[in-house]
Design a protein that fits this description.
The protein is α/β, with parallel strands linked by helices. It contains twelve helices and twelve strands. The protein is elongated. The structure holds 3-phosphoglyceric acid. The site of 3-phosphoglyceric acid (3PG) has 11 residues, from loops.
Length: 306
């Protein structure tokens, strides 16, 4: 079978080599499309492939329709808002993700972001410490739990909320359950966002929630830019000159916001939460193995469009 690794943002070379080894040992062929400049290149590249591995690359209905032999697509990562699942289902393409594989990298970045903002973006101004502060984790999944563990180890108090978990499950994961999302925002010096981008969550964090945060609080977003209501964020930062926002996913109007709010806002130039060689290896290898297992045994563990 021909497997295409299509990564606009390339994996570390060790990850690509390892993926190649896994694929070839199973008797398949790997082709690689990296750093492509236009979506048309992806559309062209899928013409004769049986399987596809992507990161945040957009697997649209057009891509799926252009790949008549495609049987499986694996998003090497957690969030799959970049896959058109309906189009995959319509064309009998199995869609999977690799949950948990890059979580540690994202969790480490969330912690780094809290420290970076507490220390005035590493300017010589007097900062604050994160020990003794409270972090609220919005969604206590693979990444959220790791953020909680690391924050606790650094002396932070950890609260969490997750619509899919009971208070007992949250407590078992080492966090104090928040009574509501509003309470989480009201009670925490930092809120770290770990929700996926879905029709229900897009634009769901805005003025009303952000202005609940206590004096000097920081909102940390290593999830998706789409979950933030940017107009609401801007209004909140304008009215509450003590609040800060740091994000791994630059808001659409970042340049304007940066000009208005200076060191109270920061966005990474490109999404880098999962951009470590370890995370690339973990997620990339998992994707390759899931494809090989699907072709060898029909294994559909982690299938998203069941
Ligand atoms: C994920 O959903 O797994 C992360 O956001 C990583 O995305 P990336 O593969 O584009 O870095």
């Amino acid at each position: 079978m021909k497997i295409l690794l299509a990564t606009q943002k390339p994996f570390a070379s060790a990850a690509v080599q390892g993926i190649r080894n896994i694929v070839e040992e199973a008797g398949h062929e790997l082709v690689v499309l990296e750093k492509y400049a236009a979506q048309e290149e992806l559309v062209t590249a899928v013409a004769d492939v049986d399987a596809l591995i992507v990161r945040s690359d957009k697997v649209t209905a057009e891509v799926v329709a252009a790949a008549p032999k495609l049987k499986i697509v694996v998003r090497a990562g957690a969030g799959y808002d970049n896959l058109d699942l309906a189009a995959c289902t319509e064309h009998s393409v199995v869609a999977m993700n690799t949950p948990g594989q890059n979580s540690n990298a994202v969790a480490e970045l969330a912690i780094a972001m809290m420290i970076y903002m507490s220390r005035g973006q590493f300017t010589p101004s007097t900062g604050t410490e994160i020990a003794g502060k409270t972090v609220g984790i919005q969604a206590f999944g693979n990444v959220g739990r790791l953020v909680g563990q690391k924050a606790a180890a650094l002396g932070m108090k950890v609260k969490a909320i997750d619509p899919f978990l009971s208070d007992e499950q949250i407590a078992a994961g080492g966090a104090e359950p928040a009574s509501s999302l509003e309470a989480l925002y009201s009670e925490c010096d930092f809120v770290s966002i770990h929700i996926p981008a879905t029709p229900q969550t897009i634009g769901s964090i805005g003025y009303e929630l952000i202005t609940r945060m206590p004096k000097g609080a920081t909102l940390v977003n290593t999830a998706r830019k789409e979950v933030i209501d940017e107009a609401g964020l801007e209004q909140a930062l304008k009215e509450r000159t003590d609040l800060k926002y740091i994000t791994d996913v630059a808001p659409d109007g970042y340049e304007v916001l940066k000009e208005k709010f200076g060191t109270r806002i920061f966005a990474t130039p490109k999404k880098m939460g999962a951009q470590t060689s370890e995370a690339n290896v973990n997620a990339g290898f998992a994707a390759a193995r899931q494809i090989c297992a699907y072709f060898a045994e029909g294994c559909t563990r982690f299938q998203l469009n069941k």
